[in-house]
Design goal:
CATH superfamily of the largest domain: Leucine-rich Repeat Variant
CATH topology of the largest domain: Leucine-rich Repeat Variant
CATH architecture of the largest domain: Alpha Horseshoe
Distance between the termini: 55 Å
Number of domains: 3
Radius of gyration: 20 Å
CATH class of the largest domain: Mainly Alpha
């Protein structure tokens, strides 16, 4: 069967799905095909009131990559906020430099913390090689300023994502922008001392340790992290991994998701 014929078969299954569960399954199969021909249908799915299908569609768009970027950017002009939010998540996952302005605006101003979080993480993993050297340097400074500004975001998950973004940005600019890396290190050092959340302090400390190991620089004051703070960081990483694995294996709304999460949280609290 040709790619075009396969795409049409999978698209038809999405169109003919007669329940929320079947829609999720059909979109997952469509996403797994990774065919350019499926992009319009995957994007249309973002408008449905079905989070499970939207998650599958986002994963499919990310897997397809660059060909999905312009259609996603076109969608951002629409009035459907839910679709816009899912599209931003997809843009963040693809990392195409054409989405820079959209991601910076979303990270700073979107009212949904999940969208700000996704945009912050995405800003750290932009494919800088797609830009001219000088253009990339200017953009990297702008992104750094946005991510550091998110250190004041009231939601800790956004601040956490901003640290991950800063770490990735520093790793991408170690050879080309040492002054920018120094700025990031200074900011991370400040967070280890000032952020009220143990999870944020431990994540900033971890980022400092990774960056200092990579390029052999040391900050003036070495950060310290308590056992409790390090446990927070490890726990959060494990929970994120568990969330991803469950999303891949359990249908949307399955109560076992919440049961497993409750067990994980209980074990996490015991370890502190």
């Amino acid at each position: 069967m040709s790619n075009a014929a396969l795409a049409q078969t999978l698209i038809r299954a999405v169109d003919e799905a007669d329940s929320a569960t079947r829609l999720v399954q059909a979109v997952q199969q469509l996403a797994n095909a990774r065919l350019v021909e499926t992009i319009p249908t995957l994007i249309a799915t973002l408008r449905y009131n079905n989070p499970g299908a939207a998650v599958a569609a986002v994963d499919g768009l990310i897997a397809i990559g660059k060909p999905a970027v312009q259609p996603l950017l076109d969608l951002l002009d629409g009035h459907n906020y839910t679709a816009r939010a899912w599209a931003i998540r997809a843009m963040a996952g693809i990392g195409d430099a054409r989405g820079l302005d959209v991601l910076m605006a979303a990270a700073q101003h979107d009212f949904a913390l999940s969208v700000r979080r996704a945009a912050a993480r995405g800003l750290g993993t932009v494919h800088w090689e797609e830009l001219e050297v000088e253009q990339a340097k200017v953009a990297q400074v702008n992104v750094c300023n946005v991510l550091m500004g998110l250190g004041q975001d009231p939601e800790w998950v956004v601040r956490y994502a901003a640290i991950a973004g800063l770490q990735a940005l520093a790793q991408a600019t170690i050879e080309t922008q040492p002054a920018l890396v120094s700025t990031i290190l200074t900011h991370l050092q400040q967070l280890t001392n000032t952020d009220p959340d143990a999870g944020i302090r431990s994540r900033a400390t971890r980022a400092l340790q990774v960056l200092q190991t990579l390029h052999g620089c040391q900050s003036e004051e070495q950060p310290t992290v308590t056992t409790v703070e390090m446990n927070w960081w490890l726990t959060l990483e494990k929970l994120y991994d568990r969330k991803f694995q469950e999303r891949m294996t359990l249908p949307e709304g399955d109560p076992r998701r919440y049961q497993d999460l409750a067990v994980a949280l209980t074990e996490a609290v015991k370890s502190l």
